[in-house]
Amino acid sequence: MSRDLSALVPRLREICSDRGVLTDEAERRTYESDGLDYHAVIPGVVVLPETTDQVVAVIRLCVEHNVPVVPRGSGTGLSAGALPNADGVLLVTSRMRRIREIDVDNQRAVVEPGVLNLDVTRAAAPHGLYYAPDPSSQQVCSVGGNVAENSGGAHCLKYGFTVHHVTGLEIVTPTGELVQLGGKSVESPGLDLIGTFVGSEGTLGVATAITVRLERTPERVRTLLAAFDSLDAGGTAVTSIISAGVLPSAIEMMDALSIEAAEQAVQCNYPPGAEAVLIVELDGPASDVDAQFDQVSTLCREAGAFEIHTAADAQERARIWKGRKSAFAAMGRISPAYIVQDGVVPRTALPEVLGRIAELSATTGIRVANVFHAGDGNLHPLVLFDNADPEAAERAGDVSAAILDLCIEHGGSITGEHGVGVDKVCHMPAMFTPDDLATMDDVRRAVDPHGIANPEKLLPTPRLCGERPSVRTGEHPLVAEGKAELF
Amino acid sequence: MSRDLSALVPRLREICSDRGVLTDEAERRTYESDGLDYHAVIPGVVVLPETTDQVVAVIRLCVEHNVPVVPRGSGTGLSAGALPNADGVLLVTSRMRRIREIDVDNQRAVVEPGVLNLDVTRAAAPHGLYYAPDPSSQQVCSVGGNVAENSGGAHCLKYGFTVHHVTGLEIVTPTGELVQLGGKSVESPGLDLIGTFVGSEGTLGVATAITVRLERTPERVRTLLAAFDSLDAGGTAVTSIISAGVLPSAIEMMDALSIEAAEQAVQCNYPPGAEAVLIVELDGPASDVDAQFDQVSTLCREAGAFEIHTAADAQERARIWKGRKSAFAAMGRISPAYIVQDGVVPRTALPEVLGRIAELSATTGIRVANVFHAGDGNLHPLVLFDNADPEAAERAGDVSAAILDLCIEHGGSITGEHGVGVDKVCHMPAMFTPDDLATMDDVRRAVDPHGIANPEKLLPTPRLCGERPSVRTGEHPLVAEGKAELF
User: Fold this and answer.
1) Residue B17: strand, helix, or coil
2) Most buried among A99, A116, A230, B151, by the most CB within 10 A?
3) Is B180 in contact with A436 (Cβ distance < 8 A)?
4) Could you report the per-residue pLDDT of B211-264, keeping only the tens digit for each?
5) A344 touches chain B (CB under 8 A)
6) Mind listing the domains of chain B with CATH numbers?
7) Do the Cβ atoms of A82 and A88 come closer than 8 Å?
8) Residue B208 to residues B19, B75, B90, B98: CA-CA distances in angstroms?
9) For chain A, how big is the Rg over CA atoms in Å?
C-alpha cells in the first residue's frame, strides 16, 4: 500500500467499518484483475460499501485526497474495465445487493448495483415477469457491472442492450454528489444522461440504485439448431429469416472449429460434419411463435440445412444452448491459448468480413474460430495460438487487432458488448476522429473535473497510446508479457 | 436587426448565399414562434443552410462573434424550444431535406434534419419498411426537430421514442466541430452521447445527418373503439389489457368533454352518451393480432364497455382516429381559449391523478378535458378558459401548473413528449434537485462552453426563474400578455 493511502485507510474504516476495508495484500490480490486476467494490478486498498451514503462518503474522501477510484461489480468484465490502480481505491459494489422494489403493476425493479443479473429475474418470475438482458455470465455478473458495460447477451437482437432497459439511476458522481437520473417513467425532461452513464465504464461515477424495466415472461419459447455445410449457407439462412420479417429472440452461429472445441468440451452432439450451425430461438405468443417456427425451419432447409434439431422440451433446449454457451471456455481443448475478440459489423457485411478473417488466418497460420450473434453482426472471433511460441503470440495479437480494423473498415465497431476498458483504449482513435473523442472527453471532464473516476480507461491519451494503437506497434500487454491461459 | 448582427450578415451571405439569409422584418416575423405561439420574438437574422459545411461555418461565425444560435426544424414544437433571440441567429434546417440513403438490408435510413417525419416512411414503404415514431404532426414536423425534442406519438407505447430509433448522428457542436456519434451498428464504444443529444432541444448543437432504424411494415393492423360510462371503467380496461400481457401499438383514451369537442368539430360518430372512449390498436403478424384482438374486445366488455366498434378497413380505421387526432384543435368549438398540458405519471397512478384533476376543476370552476396515451401514462389535459376574463386566464394557468405538480407528486414527469423549452424551464427545479440540475448543466457547458446554443432554454437559471416557477407566481407569459387563441 502506498504512503498516500495510509492516511486514507482510517477514514475509510470509519465510513465502511473494518470489514468493509481490505488492506491485507493477499486479500487485495483477489481483486487484481477482472475477467480479462492478462491485465493485473494489485489495488492500493479495497472498499466494500453497503449503502449509498457510504459510497458518497468514500468518493468525497477520494476527491479530498485526489485518489483515483475504480468501481467494480462482480469482476466478470472482458476489457479490463475494472483493472485497479496500485495507488488507488477499488470500490467493490458486491455487498450492495438489496432488491429495493419489484413494482409489478408498472413492470419495474429497483435494485442495488451488486444484485446479480439472474437474481432480478428470479425475484420477478413469481409475477410472470423477467429482466431481458442476459449476458452469458448472468449467473454471476452484477446489474451495476451491466450498467457500466451496457451489457448485451444472446437475446439482445430482439430485446436490446442494458441501456434499453434502464429507466432510472441513482448515481454518485465523481465529485461526490448524489444525483437522480430518470425514474420509473418512460421519459424524463432535461438532458437525458442515462444513455451516457450506461456504458460509461465507471468513468462518470457509481450507480447506487438502478431502475429497470421488466418484461412479461413469453407464453412460448422454441429453439432449433440447423447444420450447414458452409458458413455462407448459414449466413444465407440468417439473411432470409430477417428478410422474411421474422425477429427471433436469438440467432447464434458457430463455425467448424468452435463446434469441434465445444464437442470435445461438453459433448453437445451437434450434427457431425457441420461447417456451421445456427441456433435460432423464438419467443412470444404461442400462435405467433408456432407459425414463425415452421417458417424458420423451411427457410433453413431452403438455405441448405442438412439437419435440423428442434428442442421438444426445456432439457433439449438447454442441450442445444450448452455447446454455444461453453464455446469460449472450450477453446482450451483445441489450443493452449487464445484471445476472445469482440467486434461488430453491419449484418450485411458478415460474409465479406468472415471471408477476410479466413484469409488472415490462412496467410498468418493463426487459427481463428468464429462464434457470433449473427442477427446483429456481433462477432466473437477466437484467435488461437501456442503460448510456448512468442512469435506465434505476437502474430495472434496482430491478427486480433487486424480483425478490429476489418470491423471498422466495414462500418462497424471495435466492441459489441465487452467494452473498451484498458484493453481497447488505444483502438479508439482508429474509430473516432480527434473531434469525436474530444467531445466525449469534454463531457467526461465536466462530470469528473478531478479526473479520479477510473482514469486511463475508455478514452485514449497520448501517454497511453502514443500516436498509433499500441497493439499495432507490438506493445500489446499480451505480447509484452507473454501471458498464456487467458480464460 | 441589432447593430452586432450587421457585421455578421455579409459573412452569413458568403456562407449561405443571399437566398439563405433573411434580414427583412416581414420575413423574419414568419419565424417569431413555434407551435406554442404565445411565446414570440422576432429573430435577429434567419439563416437557411443547405449543407453540413454551411452549418459548421455559420456556427463558427456565431462563436467568433459570441452570438446566440437557435436551431429550428419545421417549427411545430409545443414548448417554445425554437423561440428565437432578438439579437441572435435562427438556424432553420428546412432546406436540408435530402434522404441520403435507404439501406434496406440493414434497415437504416440516413436523412438530413429537414426531412419530414412522414417522408422517411414514404421513402421506405416500397421496401416494406417504415419509420416508427409518429407524432400527430408527422406530416409537417421534421426528423431534426423530432431528435431535438425526442418526439413520441400514439405508437410509442410499443415502439418507444425517437431516441430508441436513432443509431447514428452527425452533429455540429456549439464550438463548430463536426462530430460523428454512433453509426449504423447497434452499439458504439466510448461515451454514448446519442441518448443525451436526442432530446437536448438544440442546446448541444445541430444534427446535420440522422441515421434511424426502420421497422418492417406489420402484416396486420387492427383498431377498435370501446365506449364506457365512466373514466374509471376505461382505466380498468387499460389495466386488464396490459396485465394480460397484450402490448397494443396504441391505447388512447378521451373523456366526455374531449369527445364532445371532437364530435362538434369532425363528427366522428363516437357512441352517444360515452363518458370515456378507448382506442386500441394492435399490429404484428396476422395470427397474433387476430388472437389478441379478440382478447382485447373481451377484456373491454368485461370492464364494462357498452359499445365496441371495430374497424373493418383502412377507411373505418381512419374514422376512428379522426376524433382523437383532431381533439386538441377541436377544443376551439367548446372554449374560446385553452392550454394544452403534457405530463406523465406511472400508469397505475392514472385513476388517482384523474380524480385529483377532476377535483381541481370542480373547486376552480375551470373545465379540463382529458386526452391521453393511456398505455404509458402520458396525459394531455386541455385546460379551458375564457380569455375575455383575465381572472379566468390566471386561474387556468394555475390549474395547468397544479396538474404538473400532481404529476411530480405521483412519481411522474412535467413533460411526456412536448419538451421543456422556454415554457417549462421554471418547473425543472420542482422535479430535480440542485445537484441533478448542476450535473446536466456541467455536461451542457462542457459541450457549449460559450453558452451560445439555444440559451435560456431547458435548464433553469435564477435570472429566468427566481426561486419559484414563474407560472406559480403569476408571471406566466400567457397570463402576462393575456393572449388568446393558442392553437
Assistant:
1) coil
2) B151
3) yes
4) 999 999 999 999 999 999 999 999 999 989 988 888 999 999 999 999 999 999
5) yes
6) 3-92 (3.30.43.10), 99-216 (3.30.465.10), 220-330 (3.30.70.2190), 335-481 (3.30.70.2740)
7) no
8) 20, 17, 15, 11
9) 23
Q: CA A21 → CA A24, A27, A92, A94, B390, distances in Å?
A: 9, 10, 10, 13, 65
| Chain B contact for A434 (CB, 8 A cutoff) | no
Pairing of strands A206-213, A215-216: unpaired
| Cβ atoms of residues B114 and B124 within 8 Å | no
Written as nine digits, the cell of A406 is 476489418
For chain A, residues with pLDDT lower than 50 are 1, 3, 468-487
Q: Show the cell assigned to B288.
A: 397474433
- Identify the pLDDT of residue A2: 54
pLDDT at A467: 58
Integer Cα distance of B2 and B27 in angstroms: 16
Percent of chain A surpassing pLDDT 70: 95
Q: Which residue has the cell 417549427?
A: B75
For residue B392, what is its C-alpha cell?
Answer: 379566468
pLDDT score for B2: 54
Note whether A315 and A325 are within 8 A (CB). Answer: no
Determine whether the interchain pair B189/A292 forms a contact, defined as Cβ–Cβ distance below 8 Å. Answer: no
A333, A265 in Cβ contact below 8 A?
yes
pLDDT score for A417? 87
Q: What's the confidence (pLDDT) of residue A56?
A: 98
Backbone dihedral region for residue B329 (phi beyond 0: left; psi -120 to 50: alpha; all else: beta) = alpha
Identify the segments of chain B with pLDDT beneath 50: 1, 3, 468-487
Residues of chain A neighbouring B413 (CB-CB closer than 8 A): 183, 185, 187-189
B399 touches chain A (CB under 8 A): no
Compute φ and ψ for A310, nearest 5 degrees: -115, 140
Q: Show which of residues 106-135 on chain B sit within 8 Å of chain A, judged by CB atoms.
A: 106, 128
* Interface list for A 442-471 with B (CB within 8 A): 442-447, 458-459
Binary contact (B284, A288; C-beta < 8 A): yes
Three-class SS state of B465: helix
The x, y and z cell numbers of residue A347, run together, are: 449484418
Distance, CA of B106 to CA of B125 (rounded, Å): 15
d(C-alpha B318, C-alpha A195), whole Å: 36
Chosen for mutation from A178, A206, A373, A439 (greatest number of chain B CBs closer than 10 Å) is A439
Kind of pairing, strands B21-22 and A166-172? Answer: unpaired
